[in-house]
Design goal:
Helix content: 55-70%
CATH superfamily: DksA, coiled-coil domain
CATH topology: Four Helix Bundle (Hemerythrin (Met), subunit A)
Bound molecules: zinc ion
Distance between the termini: 23 Å
CATH class: Mainly Alpha
Number of domains: 1
Structural class: mainly alpha
Strand content: under 5%
Amino acid sequence: MDSATRDALARILADERARAEAALRAHDAALEGLGAARSDSTADDEHDPEGATLADEWSRLTGLRAAALRELEALRAADARLAQGTYGVCEGCGRPIPPGRLEVRPTATRCVACAS
Ligand SMILES: [Zn+2]
């Protein structure tokens, strides 16, 4: 991998990490707001058949939050591989992962052949 490709991928990783961190903060804030709403009986929307119940919304948000956390972990691991010089090397076959795949999926640890 040449240094220009490496720099471009490092920027993609940084952007993705900023996005995942923002998503995590947004989910945390939403969960906090929902927690306050749940403890407030006047905000009980259990009887609204059209709207999601607070419990449904809670599980949806905790799912999103967990996904954002997993993504953030994968992005941090990718940053670590970049620092160690092992980024973009397939952990299945040891061959380079094509930069095009890494641009689309910057946290990929395997080439398409090994991932499938
Ligand atoms: Zn491979």
